[in-house]
Amino acid sequence: MLKKYLLVFFISMVPLIELRGAVPVGLSSLWGSPLPIVPLYILCILGNMLPVPFIFFFARKVLVWGADKKFIGKFFTFCLEKGEKGGKKLQEKAGRGLYWALFLFVGIPLPGTGAWTGTLAASFLDMDFKKSVIAVIAGVILAGIIMGLASFGIFGAFGTILN
Length: 163
Known about the structure:
This protein is mostly helical.
């Protein structure tokens, strides 16, 4: 059982997979019996949020540092340009509701969204750290709820009822 708790914790820290992948694994019968919901969510949220301060304060600096390096420079420059362009686009669309936009960006479980990407965008936009973390953690909680419902087949049941 401890192995499954650790597995779920580490899965929730992985970029692109994050809590969205960890919740279904924790609720499944893979690698043992399903985990209790409350401890699973707490563990997934903690695992997903652990990298957030490091991403906010250091990821942009690492990308800037690596932009002029021989082997990684092109990729790092691409990431910087894409992040800045995406951040400006989000800021133009969201206006004063930027933190709500960040919350929804992190909370709607689509490919390429999540705590890692949302925190990096907040860093590029020079958003307030505390407000950004609140928006990201709220988004992670929303994503966890959505993934839990999807894992239990709630959305499939609604689809069947509506058809």
